[in-house]
Design a protein that fits this description.
Rossmann fold; alpha/beta; 9-stranded mixed beta sheet; 54% helix; Serine Threonine Protein Phosphatase 5, Tetratricopeptide repeat
Length: 448
């Protein structure tokens, strides 16, 4: 391998590389994904030239990629102090702050970038994302529209505008933008998924199924179109969502998961926490607690006061990476839920699960596994989406959006057969979706 291609280069003494050459090499390492080597190179450059603005900035970008948001903000702000005339740097600062939910600061950064570079479609697209997170939907639409006026062939802007319009119930308009995104980038997974979503929202299920069939024809091993095709057609419906589908979906969704749920007025973790408070009384770190399907850890801070030890389990490694910075879990584990519970013999006093069992159809196996994982007198607290109407003999149903809904009777029967007692079911409003409330059940059940 030629020496110039070796990622081990930064391990050598910096005098072997001129300062003029060091920054391009560091940036190439960074671009190629050799983050540790690139970081070492940036740091060595800055040790010799602390005011090298590019090295400061890209070290900040690298820190952001490695999940170190505070260091990223510090370095990017410092680079702007050293060279305040680069609009992309304000844009990058906005990206970090938006992900950290520091929305007013992100707005300042994006607005400055847009002021400096009013014809930059990327910046306007990001400003639209910020306005959407602020629930300033009219301004978000204006920003996306301006981005598309500047660059009509930008698929991500069509996607973003399509998502915004769908959120506002403007399904027909959203469909047009999803179609544009798909035409511009026919292999883009997210566009295909959202095009299918738009079709099924319009109750055009045959057309949604055709989107997924074409996607599956191109990518026969992809679990996502396979799952949605089953959901749209009712054919080959699995007993629960395939592990590969769940992992792929939530790994992709992890970066924007919390922000998206906020726009949907998502309340499942709060309902679960309120039930735990009713069962546990005053919090005294009295229980061994499992957060089953913990995701990004939204339940964690709410139930931690009751936990002597709090463990989170999830199939998505990316979601677990978002849960870790909350610093409330004693352990985070990547595993399939039923198999994990089956190995947890009488290990927990409390198992909570917010919006996880909506990826299971038949609840018999997971209910038995939960019973085995609980100590005597332990509690199971969870939510499911409610199945009403339709064929009364259908106990659970895979919906076109990819989640299962359940009849109350099926859940109660599964819990009873697993040996649970003292069951209670409370009707709840889980979230809004497409401007329509999603109804669900909050269940509590006790191990005898």
């Amino acid at each position: 391998m030629p020496a110039k291609n070796r990622p081990s280069l930064p391990g050598k003494k910096l005098q072997h590389v001129s300062l003029k050459d060091a920054l391009p090499i560091a940036m190439q390492l960074h671009q190629n994904g050799h983050l540790e080597a690139a970081q070492q190179m940036y740091e060595r450059i800055l040790k010799l030239t602390p005011r090298q603005a590019n090295a400061v900035h890209f070290l900040g970008v690298l820190n952001h990629q490695r999940g170190r948001s505070e260091q990223a903000v510090t370095h990017i702000r410092r680079s702007i102090e050293l060279d305040p005339k680069v609009p992309d740097w304000y844009n990058n600062l906005g990206n970090v702050l938006l992900e950290a939910k520091r929305l007013p600061e992100a707005a300042d950064a994006y607005e400055k970038a847009a002021e400096m570079s009013p014809g930059n479609a990327t910046i306007l697209n990001n400003l639209g994302a910020l306005r959407r997170a602020q629930e300033r939907f009219d301004e978000a639409e204006i920003a996306y529209t301006k981005a598309l006026a500047l660059d009509p062939k930008r698929p991500e802007a069509h996607n973003n505008l399509g998502n915004l319009l769908r959120l506002q119930g403007k399904t027909q308009e959203s469909l047009q933008h999803f179609c544009e995104a798909l035409i511009l980038n026919p292999k883009q997974h997210h566009a295909r998924k959202m095009l299918g979503v738009a079709y099924y929202t319009l109750k055009r299920f045959d057309e949604a199924a055709q989107v997924y069939r074409e996607w599956l024809r191109d990518e026969p091993d992809n679990p996502v179109p396979k799952h949605y095709l089953a959901a749209c057609t009712g054919e080959s419906v699995p007993e629960r969502a395939d592990d590969a589908y769940v992992e792929a979906t939530f790994d992709e969704f992890a970066e924007s998961f919390d922000a998206n749920l906020e726009t949907l007025t998502y309340r499942a973790p709060q309902f679960v926490a309120e039930a735990v408070a009713r069962l546990g009384g005053a919090p005294a770190k009295q229980w061994q607690v499992l957060d089953a399907g913990c995701g990004t850890g939204l339940c964690g801070p709410l139930i931690a006061p009751y936990a002597q030890r709090l463990v989170g389990v999830d199939l998505s490694g990316q979601m677990l990476a978002k849960a870790a910075p909350r610093q409330v879990y004693d352990e985070l584990l990547k595993a399939e839920l039923t198999a994990f519970l089956q190995a947890q013999h009488q290990a927990h006093d409390l198992i909570v699960s917010a919006d996880t069992l909506c990826y299971f159809g038949n609840l018999d196996a997971v209910s038995r596994a939960a019973a085995g994982a609980l100590r005597q007198g332990g509690w199971l607290v969870f939510t499911v989406e409610s199945l009403e109407g339709g064929d009364p003999g259908e106990q659970h149903h895979l919906n076109p959006h990819g989640r299962y809904s359940h009849r109350r009777a099926h859940v109660e029967q599964a819990l009873a057969q697993a040996g649970f007692v003292n069951m209670a079911a409370e009707p709840i409003h889980l979230r809004n979706e497409g401007g329509v409330p999603v109804q669900g059940w909050l269940f509590t059940a006790q191990h005898p």
